[in-house]
Design a protein that fits this description.
With 139 residues, the chain is mostly helical. Helix content is 68%, strand content 7%. The chain has one domain: Winged helix-like DNA-binding domain superfamily/Winged helix DNA-binding domain (Arc Repressor Mutant, subunit A). Strand 1 and strand 2 form a beta hairpin. Helix 2 packs across helix 4. The chain is globular.
């Protein structure tokens, strides 16, 4: 039996590779989609440092992704209401539309990626990964 750590890393790497290839059709990478998802789904406008923290990215990587999303007109930057030196990130209508397209592509790819599993196995895998992720992010 292969080591669990290796299996998790190899599987995550393969999924990201397949997702990046599939997302090429809408012109974004998996990392850009992850940042855009944070901006689109947030209850309140976010700053770059908050996105970096949630996604576990360093600031330069996050800044580069934000610049690319801004150059594609998917997001805009505005001064933060309480601190004019800080900026908040907001999705544009085009950004919201691309986010929806990305979600459709990602759902399709996940269905392909997990096609070897039956519904019960998918549910069990989701539950187990949720437990691990929750423990790692809050533990």
């Amino acid at each position: 039996m292969a080591e669990l750590g290796y299996l998790l890393m190899a599987t995550a790497k393969q999924l990201k590779y397949q997702l990046n290839n599939a997302l090429e059709e809408v012109g974004v990478t998996a990392s850009q989609w992850a940042v855009l998802a944070q901006i689109v789904t947030a209850d309140n406008p976010l700053m770059a440092v908050e996105i970096a923290s949630v996604l576990g990215m360093d600031k330069p990587t996050t800044s580069g992704i934000i610049q690319r999303l801004q150059s594609k007109a998917f997001i805009i930057k505005k001064p933060a209401p309480l601190d004019g030196r800080a900026t908040i990130l907001l999705p544009t209508e085009q950004g919201r539309a691309i986010f929806r397209q990305c979600t459709t592509v990602a759902n399709r790819e996940m269905a392909k990626f997990t096609a070897a599993l039956d519904a019960q196995q998918k549910q069990t895998l989701t539950q187990l990964l949720t437990i691990i992720e929750r423990e790692q992010s809050h533990g």
